[in-house]
């Protein structure tokens, strides 16, 4: 069967990664969480004190980029992919509020984006990939056969993230999460370098009232349509 590229974009915590994981699993595609890559670079900046005390700037990131090595290791059975920063698994650390509070700043830097976009293109070269983020359909893979733009009600998104972090033992408040999501959405949508936009040819999936299974079915049907279309064109 033909393999395609599935690009999933949308605001923070609207269910992109859950949907991406589910369809990648069903299709036996690889899943790449590009947010995890921006979070890993942010963790590197925090660990190396590259972020100014006011949290508004990053010192000389261009000089450090060659020292930042990011890769994924995927379990062949569960298909779960975990992100590694310079050989160290950082999957848990990158989900902290400290990283969440700084990631939009770091991901607005041109040189950071150039480095990560080039890794993302390499990872998706062979097709059979589901990639989620903010600029996948618009910048990373503008020719993706299927582009989805995922949305959800702001309140629902904050509660989902709250339950996820609380479930991991993080003592975060709902207010703190709401504030973080609003801020990130604002910066991610208004930055100069590849802001979050809905690609013109993207299909919107609003996950507010949809069960996980229904979302996955909808996306799977869309993938199958595109796979058949590609087969007819070939
Ligand atoms: O998907 P996430 O919430 O883990 O992403 C964290 C941040 O990374 C998000 O606030 C903006 C940035 N990001 C980006 O700028 N471009 C992407 N393709 C993915 C994430």
Short description:
The protein is α/β, with parallel strands linked by helices and 234 residues long. It has helices at 16-27, 34-47, 61-64, 97-106, 110-124, 136-140, 154-167, 174-190, 212-233; strands at 5-10, 30-33, 70-74, 81-85, 88-89, 129-133, 146-151, 203-206. The strands form two sheets. It has a five-stranded parallel beta sheet, with helices on both faces. It has a three-stranded antiparallel beta sheet with strand order 3-4-5, covered by helices on one side.
Number of helices: 9
CATH topology: Rossmann fold
The run of helices and strands is: EHEHHEEEHHEHEHHEH
Supply the number of structural domains.
1
What is the C-alpha radius of gyration, as a whole number of Å? Answer: 17 Å
Task: Please provide a written account of the structure.
The chain is an alpha/beta fold and 234 residues long. It has one domain (5-224): P-loop containing nucleotide triphosphate hydrolases (Rossmann fold), CATH 3.40.50.300. The chain contains 9 helices and 8 strands. The protein has helices at residues 16-27, 34-47, 61-64, 97-106, 110-124, 136-140, 154-167, 174-190, 212-233; strands spanning 5-10, 30-33, 70-74, 81-85, 88-89, 129-133, 146-151, 203-206. The strands form 2 sheets. Strands 2-6-1-7-8 form a 5-stranded parallel beta sheet, with helices on both faces. Strand 4 and strand 5 (88-89) form a beta hairpin. Helix 4 (97-106) packs parallel to helix 8 (174-190) and helix 7 packs across helix 8 (174-190). The protein is globular and about 55 Å long. It starts with a strand and ends with a helix. The model has no long low-confidence stretch (mean pLDDT 94). The site of 2'-deoxycytidine-5'-monophosphate has 14 residues, from helix 2, helix 4 and helix 8. Residues 12, 34-35, 38-39, 103-104, 107, 133-136, 184, 188 line the site of 2'-deoxycytidine-5'-monophosphate.
């Amino acid at each position: 069967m033909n393999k395609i590229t599935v690009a999933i974009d949308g605001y923070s915590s609207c269910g992109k990664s859950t949907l991406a994981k589910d369809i990648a699993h069903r299709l036996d595609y690889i899943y790449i969480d590009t947010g995890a890559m921006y979070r890993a670079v942010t963790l590197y900046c925090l660990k190396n004190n590259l972020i100014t005390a006011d949290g508004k700037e990053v010192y000389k990131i261009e000089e450090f980029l060659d020292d930042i090595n990011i890769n994924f290791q995927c379990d062949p059975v569960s298909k779960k992919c975990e992100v590694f920063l310079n050989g160290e698994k950082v999957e848990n650390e990158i989900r902290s509020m400290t990283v969440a509070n700084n990631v939009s700043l770091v991901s607005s830097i041109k040189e950071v984006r150039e480095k990560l976009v080039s890794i993302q293109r390499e990872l998706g070269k062979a097709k059979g990939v589901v990639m989620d983020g903010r600029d996948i359909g618009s910048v990373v893979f503008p020719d993706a056969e299927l582009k989805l733009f995922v949305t959800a009600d702001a309140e629902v998104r904050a509660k989902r993230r709250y339950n996820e972090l609380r479930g991991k033992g993080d003592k975060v408040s709902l207010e703190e999460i709401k504030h973080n999501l609003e801020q990130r959405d604002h910066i991610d949508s208004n930055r100069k370098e590849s802001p979050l936009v809905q690609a013109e040819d993207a299909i919107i999936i609003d996950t507010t009232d949809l069960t996980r299974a229904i979302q996955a079915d909808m996306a799977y049907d869309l993938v199958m349509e595109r796979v058949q279309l590609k087969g007819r064109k070939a």
